[in-house]
Amino acid sequence: MASTLTFAPPSPEDLRAGTLGKQMRAFNYRVVGEYPEVQPVRLDVRDQDDRLVAGVRAYVFLYWMHTDVLWVAQEQRGRGLGSRLLGMAEAQGKALGARNAKLETFEWQARAFYLKQGYTEYGRIDDYVAGQYMAHMKKRLD
In angstroms, rounded to a whole number, what is the distance separating the alpha carbons of residues 132 and 52? Predict the structure, then answer.
């Protein structure tokens, strides 16, 4: 007897409950043991007028901190703000159990900055967009 499968977006209840993630964790736990759920790392930097001038968005998962976004306003660059912000995010990631950090950056963005912060490039995707490559970078946090 053939079963009928339905492909559809998850229900609001499943989204709230995190049903898919729970199923994946249960599968993973059999191989690597239990680990904490995803932990966010969020920091904003604002000026005296409460304008956002820098920020970082990252998360810790499976003992790795993954940085999605690190941004510094053009007029604030070159003053060490990005280094301080990244260092604070890495410290927060370590406090949440991260042993390593990883990120992706385009060649026109901040590859040189991350190299100065101790990251190494472990891979790249050439011609990711407009003839530019995306660099995959990592760093030990201990």
Answer: 28
Q: Does residue 65 lie within any of the structural domains? A: yes
Walk along the chain (142 residues) and give the pLDDT tens digit of each residue.
678 999 999 999 999 999 999 999 999 999 999 888 899 999 999 999 999 999 999 999 999 999 999 999 999 999 999 999 999 999 999 999 999 999 999 989 999 999 999 999 999 999 999 899 999 999 999 8
The total of structural domains in the chain comes to 1
The answer as to whether 26 is a domain residue is no
Domain range for 107 is 37-140
Residue showing tokens 């729970």: 22
5 vs 70: CA distance, rounded Å: 41
- Give residue for tokens 């060490």: 80
Residue 127 domain flag: yes
